[in-house]
Amino acid sequence: MKNDEIFDIELTPDLIVRAYMAGIFPMSESADNPDIFWVSPEMRGIIPLEDFHVSKSLQKSIAKNNFKILIDNDFEAIIKSCATYGSDRDSTWINQTIIDLYSELFERKICHSVEVYENDELVGGLYGLSIGSAFFGESMFHKASNASKIALAHLVHRLKLGGYSLLDTQFITPHLRSMGAKEITREEYEILLAKSQNQTGDFYRLVGGGTSLDCLQPTNQIS
Description:
Layout: E1 4-6, H1 13-21, E2 25-27, E3 37-39, E4 43-46, E5 54-55, H2 56-63, E6 68-71, H3 75-82, H4 96-107, E7 111-118, E8 121-131, E9 134-142, H5 147-161, E10 166-170, H6 174-177, E11 182-185, H7 186-196, E12 221-222
Parallel strand pairs: 5-12, 9-10
Antiparallel strand pairs: 1-3, 2-3, 4-10, 4-11, 6-7, 7-8, 8-9
């Protein structure tokens, strides 16, 4: 499979799942472009769960307890917010086809959202797919400072408790790198992916949301 290849057959939720299990994921050039293409990067971004970093400033933000976290409460709002142009990006790869397909996967409890609220307003969050013991992070957004980082910290805590072995970020950004993300080769990734399909993570083992500081261990804090 090439790094990217225009998709020329009908996309279905089942096909999307099979693609992720093969190390491939779909994207679009823009929200207005109807074409979908497959991506299989030479270098893959992951966050090793044991290496996740929480900065002292983020720890302080969480400790203020100004945010409420909900799980799978409003997936539609999360994916549409991720698809909206923001101050930190001027384009998006999420088109209506992707929104529709991943919404179907949400109904099947394969897609999940982590939602961050402040005063009952959705101010950040992320979404991704849970397959086996792998979580495939798709996109995140924030309207309030640190909101997407808080969503990611909660996700990592949830995945650890749920017995997950792989957190796939697809690509690396400075934002993700600062929290422990790294790049590995496609071959290394495929080995981790294959192992992750031999067991099943429990996304709901941690009941509810909250802003638990249990994920902020002294060994994974950075200044």
